[in-house]
Design brief:
Length: 425
């Protein structure tokens, strides 16, 4: 499910007085109330002329229903005294069944709503942040370049002297420390992985990557984020864990895009072992080109954009249907990612490596794991039957496979846990 960025024209025209801000707060709350009651025409009466020119009642209805589908049924908004004001804008916390969503409103000089969007990451309401198995957990905040990374350290219930620790690195997109994101993934894959490790005497640190989850207080923005920022963060976090006297060994475990991050960070960290879980074996540009072959109508324009990015050139000429892939804001990250060749990077490692692939992974086929193995023949290859991208047992059928993405109670594939623990021990 796509992350809904509801972006309209932003008008930053004046600084409001406290009285105006309070009025704006009432207007924002009323706007939501009208949408809850399906009074979309009346809700639009509270918006600016420019807003109305872009959005009609039918469109507003579609937007609101889409939000409810993505975040669960709307429940309430916070009282007005909890609204955050910032000159001509305010943030109102809206509570839905599954998420708490910060909704940002902007106003023009007449006090009409000129923009209604999500600029901050919603927080999952479900109780997925703590270990259901009650393994000891500690929330940590670690300083990295430009900001603070938030994460969770989980340890065995009865840790022994010299307990090993694993750094768990999340995959791409807004995937949080537990393996969940706003695209509809609520599988708890990383939380379950941490529990499996703790149950076998291995501590772990899983974290929200920069600009994700609780790791949002950074000086940089999405517009200048590059791949090496993630690598630098992993190196700092890995170094922090290595310097903790209670841990004897450091393992790096990267999932999906996190595999690339972990492999490259390992070149500096020199951990005791590195694990690639469903990691890509090809350059991201190649992956995108192959995926787009299934959409002939987009191939020509997409290939043109990819070729420009390969050359390190940005473009504002992005068709609407390709904006989720190639929006100008994320092009610097894509340019830096296109320079990464997983086969070349894994070839550099001289440490124990475990490469894991799942036969029912719809996103990263086992051919990628096999390519990584061929690039570093000393690595251990583990292909797990009926394991998908969420590290859970799933059939090849696409619809049934995708259902596992939203099931946090489904356990990890048992062969993965056995193979992973045997390798690390």
């Amino acid at each position: 499910m796509r992350y809904l960025f509801i972006l309209f024209t932003l008008l930053f025209l004046s600084i409001y007085s406290g009285k105006a801000q309070n009025t704006n707060g009432n207007k924002a709350a009323k706007f939501i109330s009208l949408m809850v009651d399906s009074n979309y025409k009346e809700a639009l009466d509270l918006t600016s002329a420019d807003f109305k020119a872009k959005v009609n009642p039918a469109t507003l209805s579609k937007i609101w229903k889409g939000i409810n589908q993505q975040f669960g049924a709307f429940e309430q908004v916070e009282p007005l005294d909890s609204i955050t004001n910032n000159n001509n804008s305010l943030i109102l916390q809206a509570t839905f069944k599954d998420y708490i969503v910060p909704l940002t409103f902007h106003f023009n000089t007449s006090g009409d709503i000129s923009a209604f969007l999500m600029q901050q990451q919603p927080k999952i309401r479900a109780n997925t942040n703590r270990s259901p198995a009650n393994f000891p957990e500690e929330a940590l905040k670690i300083k990295v370049n430009g900001g603070i990374i938030s994460g969770t350290l989980m340890t065995p219930k009865n840790p022994q002297a010299g307990t090993p620790v694993a750094l768990i690195i999340a995959g791409s997109g807004p995937t949080d420390r537990n393996g969940n994101n706003l695209y509809g993934v609520k599988a708890n894959s990383y939380l379950l992985l941490a529990e499996a490790l703790a149950d076998n005497g291995i501590a772990s640190f899983r974290y929200d990557k920069r600009l994700i989850g609780e790791s949002v207080n950074f000086q940089t923005s999405q517009n200048n984020l590059v791949f090496n920022d993630f690598v630098d963060d992993a190196v700092i976090l890995g170094t922090f864990l290595k310097n903790q006297k209670k841990f004897q060994k450091l393992f790096i475990i990267g999932h999906s895009e996190g595999s690339n991050i972990g492999i490259i960070a390992s070149e500096q960290l020199n951990p005791d072992a590195v694990v690639s879980l469903c990691g890509p074996g090809e350059n991201l540009a190649t992956v995108l080109e192959n995926q787009l072959l299934t959409q002939p109508s987009l191939v020509k324009e997409a290939t043109s954009i990819i070729n420009l990015l390969k050359q390190g050139k940005m473009t504002n000429n992005v068709p609407t249907e390709l904006n989720s892939l190639f929006a100008p804001a994320i092009q610097p990250f894509l340019i830096s990612s296109f320079k990464i060749n997983p086969e070349e990077e894994i070839r550099k490692l001289k440490i124990p490596i475990l490469i894991v692939g799942g036969t029912t992974d719809l996103q990263v086929p086992t051919s990628h794991a096999e390519k990584l193995k061929a690039a570093n023949p000393k690595a251990t290859l583990l292909l797990i039957k009926n394991m998908n991208h969420t590290l859970k047992t799933a059939p090849a059928n696409k619809e049934a496979n995708l259902k596992t993405y939203s099931n946090p109670n489904l356990p990890l594939n048992s062969d993965l846990v056995i193979g992973l623990v045997n390798f690390l021990k």
